[in-house]
Design goal:
The chain is an alpha/beta fold. It is built from 15 helices and 15 strands. The protein is globular.
């Protein structure tokens, strides 16, 4: 555990109510001081663990959001110090995963492959991005310690794609004002559904009523961002993920298996776009000989036998893939990270009984987070910390245009850059080739394409569960932040020849 050399009592910014299981302080912060060695630099930093209100249009406090704000000490001019605002997904997830698994200065006690080891708890993360940017991790309403406070407020005011974006955009502008960060270079980082949040926020923050212009957006394991997949496209996009996972389990033919994963994926991606997708689109009109050829290639690239592809009309769904790939060995594979194994009650069936990776992740993060916030950050409360909350449903998923919002934000803001990160073994809708398709639809102009970077890693949905991927991913974010800040006196406007 890190050295805590000063611990200050709670600083009540306004009026704090008594704490009980159903009553969190609406506006408070606890300040602690810490030290770390990150990226070879030894420095001190402050942590503000607290809550900041959400106001409705009439100026009434209706909810409060818990947050953790990490600020490097000794920085006199904050106008040159980047600020990163980080969200996780769900949509009912608190932000502990990114904070205590990836980018923060403390990390859950895991082995190199992301499995929990005893004792549960935290250790220093020398690969954090805190050397390069201050970070605030935000828990949306009804996640973490965040709660609805007004008994007359309705869940429908918060729990939806656009409602979520709207109140969070206002919350961020208040945070910038309170902490004097308007002049700082600003970045949004989102994981999973958090990528939906930050994509929509990139445009919402730029609205004239808010006037917050970002330098960068980081999408970690992005969702589809409201860009529809139908028919052949939806069926085909999974194949490169299948190939990566089959390679990991040594289920490919010898000539493919002996190659590096990154050497075979371009071949599989080309097959997917140029041969499989048109073949599926042909439906029953496909020539039998062509169909036989496609099935042979699918078996070669995925480890799933040819007859199964034939039985499923060239469309083996992910649930069947997770069940089928290692059926002969009695195992299923994980949805969010296919490196995890599960066992089912019956070997028969067309889908696993459970997601093999979820129990492993929960038992390492939840105990560590609860202990850290209470005993290291001195945030004392009896309010339950909701890691994965079902108190955000029903969720309004209609009118999701967040991919278009991100594109519009980049078009309107020439200084806005995009970094996208994916794990090759993520089998959810966030799989890496699905993401590539999303980015292709967003970055339709040369300028947007030039400001976009995609990175792949040998891991699953949570990139940081693999130590080497966590190290590389943090370095990629660090370099992205540093390279996305314009030089002094440099204009960011579009110009001919510029």
């Amino acid at each position: 555990m890190h050295k805590l050399y000063t611990l200050m009592a709670a600083v009540l910014l306004f009026t704090a109510t008594a704490q009980s299981q159903n009553n969190i302080p609406k506006d408070t912060a606890v300040l602690t001081h810490h030290e770390a060695t990150i990226n070879g630099q030894h420095f001190t930093y402050s942590v503000y663990k607290g809550t900041q209100p959400v106001w409705n249009k009439e100026g009434k406090i209706v909810a409060t959001l818990s947050y953790t704000y990490y600020e490097r000490e000794g920085i006199k001019d904050k106008s040159n110090r980047p600020l990163s605002i980080s969200f996780n997904g769900g949509p009912g997830s608190a932000s502990l995963w990114m904070e205590l698994g990836y980018t923060g200065p403390m990390r859950v006690n895991l082995d190199d492959e992301g499995r929990a080891i005893q004792p549960y708890g935290l250790k220093q993360n020398p690969y954090s991005i805190l050397d390069a940017t201050d970070i605030v991790y935000v828990d949306p309403v009804n996640t973490g310690y965040s709660r609805i406070l007004d008994k007359d407020a309705k869940g429908s005011e918060f729990f939806g794609v656009n409602q979520d974006i709207d109140y969070l955009a206002d919350w961020i502008t208040t945070f910038l004002t309170r902490n004097s960060r308007w002049l700082s270079p600003k970045f949004l980082i989102g994981e999973s559904y958090g990528t939906t949040r930050v994509s929509g926020l990139s445009e919402a923050l730029q609205e004239p009523s808010r006037g917050v212009f970002l330098n960068g957006v980081v999408l970690v394991s992005p969702t589809e961002l409201g860009i529809e997949r139908q028919g052949a496209v939806s069926a085909a996009l999974n194949i490169p993920y299948y190939a990566a996972t089959a390679w990991y389990y040594k289920k490919l033919p010898t000539d493919l298996q002996q190659k590096k994963l990154t050497d075979i994926l371009p071949e599989v991606e080309s097959f997917t776009l140029n041969k499989l997708l048109p073949a599926i689109a042909k439906g029953s009109s496909i020539d039998p000989q062509e169909k036989q050829s496609i099935e042979t290639q699918l078996a070669r690239y995925t480890g799933i036998e040819k007859n199964i592809w034939d039985q499923n009309n060239l469309n083996v769904r992910t649930s069947l893939f997770w069940k089928e790939l290692l059926r002969d060995k009695g195992y299923t594979i994980g949805r969010l990270d296919s490196r995890y194994l599960g066992i089912d009650e019956k070997n028969a069936g067309d889908r696993p009984d459970f997601n093999a990776e979820i129990p492993a992740w929960a038992r390492s993060f939840s105990p560590a987070a609860n202990d850290y916030m209470r005993n290291d950050l001195n945030f004392k409360t009896d309010v339950a910390y909701w890691v994965l909350s079902d108190h955000v449903y029903p969720w309004d998923s209609q009118r999701n245009h967040t991919g278009d919002q991100l594109r519009e934000a980049m078009e309107e803001n020439p200084s806005l850059h995009l970094l996208v990160q994916n794990g090759y073994y993520d089998g959810s809708i966030c799989n890496f080739f699905n993401t590539k398709y999303t980015i292709w639809q967003i970055t339709t102009s040369p300028s947007l394409k030039a400001r976009t970077t995609w990175k792949g890693y040998p891991c699953g949905h949570m990139i940081y569960m693999d130590k080497q991927s966590m190290i590389k991913g943090n370095e990629d974010i660090r370099q992205f932040i540093l390279s996305s800040i314009p030089a002094k006196d440099q204009s960011s406007d579009y110009k001919i020849g510029g």
